[in-house]
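User: Reviewer 2 asked us to show a designed sequence for the structure in our supplementary figure. I'm pasting the structure tokens here. Could you produce the per-position amino acids so we can include them in the response letter?
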């Protein structure tokens, strides 16, 4: 395992932003990683997913447009290093097929974490349950 990087998925970032108080496990975990000088990594896909999640929350009347914009700005300030290349897509397709995932979105996070030999942290229990028996480096928060 590479101890200098952590891969985050959109579910983690969304919960971090929407439950941003000092008692939040997401805030505590991110603070821990920052104190250890970890580099946060994610596929470029993460910002599409985060943007869409907050847009959908506005449509559902759960948050205001202003709050959505604030969340998006905060997400973009998290200093996440983004990756998106042809090999990542190829690897994601293989992993999606291997684990019989319904889509390749989550597989992109798996592919990136696998590439760098780092932990992938998620709040998505369906993803975790689909792969955790084979991929010990996928962590559910």
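Assistant: Here is a per-position design you can include in the supplement:
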């Amino acid at each position: 395992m590479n101890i200098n990087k952590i891969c985050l998925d959109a579910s983690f970032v969304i919960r971090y932003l929407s439950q941003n108080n000092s008692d939040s496990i997401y805030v505590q975990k991110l603070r821990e990683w920052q104190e250890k000088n970890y580099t946060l990594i994610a596929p470029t896909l993460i910002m599409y997913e985060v943007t869409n999640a907050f847009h959908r929350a506005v449509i559902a009347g759960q948050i205001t447009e202003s709050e959505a914009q604030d969340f998006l700005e905060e997400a973009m300030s998290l200093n996440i290093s983004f990756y998106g290349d042809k090999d990542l897509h190829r690897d994601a397709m293989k992993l999606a097929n291997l684990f019989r995932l319904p889509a390749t979105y989550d597989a992109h996070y798996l592919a990136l974490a696998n590439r760098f030999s780092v932990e992938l942290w998620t709040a998505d229990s369906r993803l975790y349950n689909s792969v955790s028996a084979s991929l010990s480096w996928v962590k559910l928060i």
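For the response letter, you might also mention the following. The first helix runs from residue 10 to 18. The first strand starts at residue 5 and ends at 8.
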